[in-house]
Amino acid sequence: MSKPRINMYSGIHKALRSFMSDTQARLARTDAADNEDLHGALAQTRELLQAMRKHLEHEGAFVHPAMNARRPGSAQVTEGDHDHHDWAIDKLLALCDHCATAIGSARFQHLDHLHLQLSVFVGENLVHMNLEETENNAVLWACYTDEELHEIHDRIVAAIPPEEMQATMRWMIPSLNPAERAGMLLGMRAGMPPPVFEGVLAMTRSLISARDMQKLEAALAAPQALAA
Q: Is the Cβ–Cβ distance between 11 and 176 less than 8 Å?
């Protein structure tokens, strides 16, 4: 059985799918008459939209140029989707502002509209992410070795500010399966000072179940992990 190719999209897409689903569900149950509930939901929605925009920027700066460099025009469909998503993010942010300033029954109407429009945005992104993980990956795998793809991924990670990375990890860590989570944490341990990695572990304990934490600790303590 051949070794799976590196999928640069997988981890971040799992995180964003979880973030989108959670935010959509939170908006659905938000009480427009409760200021604290409403503004908390709107804050999460804005955070999601900013995270989605940053994701577009990272792919546009690193992944699309790599695709076009070795197969000209191969990123064209994805780039068009990104232009549409960027426009949709602006519209959704404006709807958040309308919800925040509306009063009376108008607030309920704006919230319902925001929820429906976010649902459309989420649906479009789920389809788009599938395209990236199938068609875009097919191009990347045909044109690049895994070593080269690791280099591209490392450049993306290096360009992400610490605060953005921490926010992403809060969604990514609980969204990965145990093997993926262990692989990511092993890589982080190899590249971080011990005190920083201990902080990551502490955050991880707060995000996953006790059973999943036991699996992670076993993977981190395995002889092959210690020797890495």
A: yes
Contacts of 202 (CB under 8 A, 6+ apart): none
Three-state secondary structure call for residue 30: coil
Residue 76 CA to residue 189 CA, distance in Å, equals 37
DSSP string, 85-126: HHHHHHHHHHHHHHHHH--THHHHHHHHHHHHHHHHHHHHHH
The superfamily in CATH containing domain 10-160 is nmb1532 protein domain like (1.20.120.520)
As given in the structure block, the two tokens for residue 88 are 């949709």
Q: What is the residue type of 117?
A: Q
The answer on pLDDT for 227 being more than 50 is no
Positive or negative, the CA dihedral 141, 142, 147, 151 is negative
Sorted by where each begins, the domain ranges of the chain are 10-160, 176-228
pLDDT for 222 equals: 85
pLDDT in the model for residue 225? 57
What letter would DSSP give residue 174? G
